């Protein structure tokens, strides 16, 4: 492939990603503000924060846990076998997303309690695991923020026995606007569409939400419990203080 053709595809991808980012910035502003308020409420009330995603949706969840510049109280709610692609074979992770009962077992054994916040990330929002996770979390008294593509609910069938989707069991929904199939480019000679953008957009949505939460906390006179980079002078000392002060709400260090 010639350099000119490579650059054309790269430009097309960047244009598609930028267009999606502009859409979520403009169209999801109210939902981002609402989600940021939910997180700020939990932090102010002494609650804890959790994030869950299966498969590649777990990338966006991991991006906001133990992250420089992020809220120290965000914990990863891990489900064995579905976080990332380290399970062998990789297709097992996808199969586990369709298993009924798994989410309930995970929540029942987790430290989550009423008043906490659970961010659930699922591009399609149609599989049993994220739907059941949201349903059970709300039943337990957690506030649920769902990050999903609402388009899937209009054009696919739910894989949960209830026939519902993640979006139906959330206090706030952040719509990533990703088209079904999660591939932004096509090209003559390539039969499958390619170049997914869901990770870029979902991560941006979540970082914007956490930034909103930090600003909301400051407006209430509360210093957000943020982590600093360990690669800058004083970062380790800062983080040590934060981890100690909020140790009863942080679970990834144990």
TrEMBL record:
One of its GO terms (molecular function) is carbohydrate derivative binding. Transmembrane segments: none annotated. One of its GO terms (biological process) is carbohydrate derivative metabolic process. Coiled coil: none annotated. Residues 39-224 form the SIS domain. InterPro entries: RpiR-like_SIS (IPR035472), SIS_dom (IPR001347), SIS_dom_sf (IPR046348), SIS_GmhA/DiaA_subfam (IPR050099), UPF0309 (IPR022951). CDD domains: SIS_RpiR. HAMAP family: UPF0309. Belongs to the UPF0309 family. This is UPF0309 protein G6045_39110.
């Amino acid at each position: 492939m010639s350099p000119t053709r490579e650059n054309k595809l790269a430009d097309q991808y960047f244009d598609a990603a930028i267009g999606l980012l502009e859409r979520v910035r403009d169209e999801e502003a109210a939902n981002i503000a609402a989600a940021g308020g939910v997180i700020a409420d939990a932090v102010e009330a002494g609650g804890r924060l959790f994030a869950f995603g299966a498969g590649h949706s777990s990338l966006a969840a991991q991006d906001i846990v133990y992250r420089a510049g992020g809220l120290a109280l965000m914990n990863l709610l891990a489900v064995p076998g579905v976080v990332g692609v380290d399970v062998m074979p990789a297709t097992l992770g996808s199969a586990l997303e369709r298993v009924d009962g798994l989410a309930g077992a995970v929540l029942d054994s987790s430290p989550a309690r009423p008043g906490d916040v659970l961010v659930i990330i699922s591009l399609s929002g149609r599989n049993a695991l994220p739907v059941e996770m949201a349903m059970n979390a709300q039943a337990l008294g957690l506030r649920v923020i769902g990050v999903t593509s609402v388009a899937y609910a209009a054009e696919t069938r739910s894989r949960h026995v209830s026939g519902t989707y993640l979006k139906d069991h959330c206090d706030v929904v952040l719509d990533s606007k990703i088209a079904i199939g999660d591939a932004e480019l096509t090209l003559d000679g390539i039969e499958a569409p390619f170049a997914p953008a869901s990770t870029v957009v979902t991560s941006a949505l979540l970082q914007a939400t956490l930034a909103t939460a930090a600003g909301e906390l400051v407006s209430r006179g509360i210093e957000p419990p943020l982590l600093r980079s360990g690669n800058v002078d004083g970062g380790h000392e800062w983080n040590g203080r934060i981890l100690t002060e909020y140790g009863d709400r942080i679970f990834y260090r144990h």
